[in-house]
Amino acid sequence: xxxxxxxxxxxxxxxxxxxxxxxxxxxxxxxxxxxxxxxxxxxxxxxxxxxxxxxxxxxxxxxxxxxxxxxxxxxxxxxxxxxxxxxxxxxxxxxxxxxxxxxxxxxxxxxxxxxxxxxxxxxxxxxxxxxxxxxxxx
Length: 138
Known about the structure:
By secondary structure, the chain is α+β, with helices and mostly antiparallel strands. It has a domain at 43-136: Immunoglobulin-like (Sandwich), CATH 2.60.40.3230. It has helices spanning 2-24, 49-54; strands at residues 44-47, 55-64, 70-78, 84-93, 99-102, 106-110, 115-121, 129-136.
């Protein structure tokens, strides 16, 4: 009798362990889904800690061209006392936030403590929003 109770208890512990382990590996909701999605909400993002310290955007201007395309001009500023080389691109998005036009990254050399305006134009007229992304040259 004592052996049966011991065996039954061991089986219950094993089944309970399997059930809780099985639940641990099931479907889950995303963790911090809204924390690392800056590119979905901001018009200007800096990709990397070095450019976050060295580059700033002192102004963004957007306008619509006569044929309906979105044109964006960003005024970038080098905050360092040395020359910086960065790469930047612009992702144009429709009203729902889906990317409709994403150009390749292009290089830009910023003189020490200088400002430079960089222009981007969408390829089609469905762009309503944009995100300019700046990264360090690898």
